[in-house]
Amino acid sequence: MNISSAIMYIAPERLEEACEALVRLPGVEIHARNPEGKLVVTLEDDDTNSAADKYVALHGVPGVVSVAMVYQYSDDESVDTEEVEA
Length: 86
What we know:
86 residues; Alpha-Beta Plaits; four-stranded antiparallel β-sheet; 2 helices
């Protein structure tokens, strides 16, 4: 599992178009935005490589000026854990 967040800046005149494109990307969610074109988004994916591909895809959305990753968490869900009784 890979979860990350980013701050994006979108050209204000393309904000609506960009937001519509972003919500169509699997695993991408918009959490905040303002009229000046700043967005806070999260990206969730099962694989670190495909998460990196999503960041590349963010740069290709019409109107995107910049994307800056702010936070990233990765966990290998395939690791077996053992419960211990107290």
